[in-house]
Amino acid sequence: MKARAIVVTSGKGGVGKTTTTANLGAGLARLGEKVAVIDVDVGLRNLDVVMGLEGRVVFDLIDVLEGRAKVRQALIRDKRVENLYLLPASQTKDKEALDPVRFQELVRHLLEEEGFDRVLIDSPAGIEKGFQTAATPAEGALVVVNPEVASVRDADRIIGLLEAREIRENLLVINRLRPKMVSRGDMLSVEDVVEILGLKPIGIIPEDEQVLVSTNQGELLVLKGTSPAAIAFMDTARRIHGEEVPFRDLDEAQGLMAVLRRLFGGR
Amino acid sequence: MWWRKGSKEKAKERLKLVLAYDRAKLSPGMVENLKRDLLEVLRRYFPAQEEGLSVALEERGERMVLMADIPLK
Fold first, then answer.
1. Which residues does residue B67 pair with via DSSP β-bridges, in sequence order?
2. What is the value of pTM for the model shown?
């Protein structure tokens, strides 16, 4: 992806935004990028626990935006992989304190002055101010969607709002796909979701119990795992990084490979 | 079950319809009311055509259009 500031968003809650942000951030860092992941869900801080860094939070995003802490003091360096940093959300402060203009300046500062290659912004659910603020500095978006009617509907809404903000490099991360349900015709396929939403997928993540297991342990799946979701997240990180990585056959009815070869036929 | 059509076809159908309304910023109820009103007017002019009159949203490329289908004998 060309975009260096990327918002991870979905509209609907609970589809896997935070897990996706954490794993793609770690995946990109593993590929040598200097990455900051920023939690913008003020009042409902979660990226820290998903990454297992909750014990090291001292300052937060609002402290930085309001000048109580320097950005370098607030960034938590992940010790498991080089070049991965977390900027946690505030758990206690008023979310009105999150000023979109200051937030945009901060992201620019990280990219231009602090030597970061990529900033992933974990957006709160919804389409209100929190999402709007998270999207303000973004040049591109990862729209996380589950193959399920409510999630697809909300993703469509979010895509409309991203386009209205002139954010153009928008790609789908189709999360929690169950190949067996797809093959018996009881789940929307990758092709269906792509057709309905009109965006290309950059990641296809199968449902995988190991996602919950690693979250329970505060570990990053992509760094330790060889499970299907771990592999799929790493593949996705590689695509964002700019590598051409074919989509793996997840044992879908009509052959996922065939579908994606058709979709990416021109490239 | 192999003889049963999977539930995803239904999901896809419903999604396409609901997104058509969402994208056009219309509520399905409003289109129903419009349809009722239109039919009322049409009935005044074409008393014999009640069968087959339809008003529906349709996707035409990038645009959504409201289609009134009025068969004339």
1. B56
2. 0.85
